[in-house]
Amino acid sequence: MLVYSVRRLLQSIPILVASTFVIFLMVASSVDPMTPYLTKKPPLSAAQLDSLRVKFGLTKPLLQRYWDWLTGLVLHGTFGSSTQTNFHIGQQLGYAMEVTLRLVIGTILIALILAVIVGVTTAVRQYSKFDYATTAIGFLFLSLPTFWFAVLLKEWAIQINESTGTHFFDTLWESSPNPPSGFLPQLGDGAQHLILPVVTLALLSYAAWSRFQRASMLEVLGSDYMRLARAKGLSPFRVLFRHGLRNALIPLTTQVALDTAALLSGAVITETIYSWRGMGLFFINSIEMADPDSVMAWLLVTAVFVVVMNLIADLLYAVLDPRIRLA
Fold first, then answer.
1. Which of 85, 164, 232, 313 is buried deepest, with most CB atoms within 10 A?
2. Does residue 70 carry a pLDDT above 60?
3. Which pLDDT score, from 0 to 100, does residue 265 have?
4. Is there a contact between 216 and 248 (Cβ–Cβ < 8 Å)?
């Protein structure tokens, strides 16, 4: 298992290196840090603009700029310096990631639990009323646009709060200006702010994951080794969960790994609607300011997250099916 893990980790390194080059080329060709300065009023002089180009390194060859950025990232752990503001990119990005990860982790836990329970139950009770009902609900959530569903939930929450005179559903990311003190009150307050955005993303993710789990479980239930396990006299519970569910989770693991990485970037819309100061706001502000180093930092973190989630999925394959690490 250790050799398998190390091999998969080493295989991820060239992928990350290649992703840094692609990210740099994408941002260098689409984000011009001179844009805000070219539209200033009164306009800057030619000498001032030339000085800014030298300061931002725009006079260097493209490959030299990429090498300077990459060596600064690898050797010094810096994402570069903002061309529009004086803030530290690493600190701001770290804070934004902390906020977004609360949302992503809560979404994964709820969506995954619902998907496994519903997927297994509907597979075992195929063509039952429960199967038809959950299928209809799943397709309903699959057809809903994220932004529309988030706005709808937010409006419902506001109406419920106004009609009941409470603030159970908070539509912002934190209590302001007087957050509660103490561990438990802060924990409860944080969970209260998570309800709406987590429900928005969890229900949409659950709808797709439950369909994957149902299809995978149906395939496993009809396999030869499941019939053999039942013929040997094993209890239905052990046949279903020890032999069936473990193998049926492998396709879902792949989908969850891919969708989890997508959640990190896809949460931009949800965070914007619920005014969360996470990765979404960081990305939007970076684009609006035409700040290439900030945009590259966001894209790089997203790329690393994709690679890490796929690495975790590969390791989970080996746990769920030991034959994989022996292949």
1. 313
2. yes
3. 66
4. yes
